[in-house]
Protein: Na+/galactose cotransporter
Amino acid sequence: MHWYPLQAVLAVLYIVGLLVVGILAGRKKHDSNQFLNATGSLPFWLCATACIASNCGSLDVIAMMALGAQYGMLACHFYWIGAVPALIVLGFWLIPAYARGHYPTVLDFIGSYCGARTRLVVTVSMALMMLLLSGVCLCAAAQAIATWLGWSFLKAVLLTIVVVSFYTALGGFRATIYGELIHFAVVLAAVVPLLFFVMRDFGGFGKFLASVPANRMHAWQSLPIVSPHAVMDRLGLIVGLGFVLSFGYWSTDFVQMQRALAVRDKDRVARIPLTVAAAKTVFAFFIVLPGVAAPLVLAQRANANYNATLPLLMQHYYSPAWLALGFLGLTASLVSTFANNVAGFTSACVQGIYQHWIRPSLPDAHYVAASRLCNLAAIALSIGSAYLALHYLSLMEYIQLILSTFNAPLFALVAIAALAPELAAAGSFGGFLIGVAAALLHQALVRTGVLHYGSQMSANFYCAIASFSLSVLGVWSIAALRKTEHTEHHSRVRVRLHLSRATVLWAIVVFGVCAFLNGLVW
Structure:
């Protein structure tokens, strides 16, 4: 790609903007929790926008557009059934409980309900999961940079980690939040026009529908009820994605919880997930429909590598200057997602392991310094994780593989702690280990060909179902064996719904629109 002076200026301004964000965010005096989580210190609009940005960034856009090219409107399930119901329940149930209980992270909730030993093993699991996810983001960002600049993969990795190291080490989580606003603005300018260009080429939405094969415009009709050997089935989609993976991701994801709990006004915390649900309901059309059209627009080029659908569409429609802006948008958002997982890894390691188990009761300045060092260590470890991610051709399938292994058993603990705290206190440690072990065994059997599915995505859905179910069964069985024992956690009460007229009305509207759209493409 040839860079013109204007494009080079835009790139320099973007990088300088990130560095300035890190410096300004780091100037404000804050303790270790503010550096790591910024709990209760940021305005609602900023946290809501950051949540939307981290969930509608370029990693999602690239993966969703690839799924649209591969599966058609089935891709919308990852934004609709895979997000909206869970976000609504989260807003009424768990997020208010976290805020009212003054739990700055999910780890504090787990520690309070399940005990210190369970918290430790969950912390290690979450840190490993975020390290793998950060490798996915670093890999995607480096590949984009290498493609556009003609660099080697290693050079692109080094550029990415230098920028992220600087602004996250200086400003911590606060810098990550403000940086996301920059990334999201650029990625919107780069991606949203694609839908309008596609519709213009087809002569309007009606002619677009007439041109696309009918089976690619249906989200439910082509799915069998139960068929693991199909590409997807309704059981795996509804239970695996819509319940276990979706609820597990949104109720336990460290990165998302950090943003929601950073809201200054606790009465508005519940509105964060509802705002994200509304955004994902609408945004799905902007990123899936161009993917659905890609095989017709790009002919054979779209079928060679589905993950290249978005870059190919941008090359097809955009002028050189706009193409440079699109490149900056994609790279910016990928770098942002990478920084999010680095910040989450640091918070988990410092607060969940170092401060709690290794060096407790030290001055707060010590933990801030340790957090900066942990940031750098996380970024260094992500290099190896990025090379691991290079072995997978589908970003979304690899992400769901990671989540089905680590998030599904964690969601089992959160659900049991919220509904039956006495069971969580007695059996959570063993139940969690059983779920993780079952997921690892399942994935190993799939990789070795012992278990066969119609796709890796279907295998991920069924892995999540098995891991969650065995975790619940393990917790219940262990608690039954230890029913005569008493622990200090039995006094914990069930998590109750937190309803208000405004949030209920908002939830009804969002769910109604989502249901209508599902019916529209049934």
User: Anything to note?
Assistant: Residues 68 and 291 are 4 Å apart (CA to CA). Residues 5-520 form a domain with the Sodium/glucose cotransporter fold (CATH 1.20.1730.10). The chain has 22 helices and no strands. Confidence is low (pLDDT under 50) at residues 31-38, 486-490.
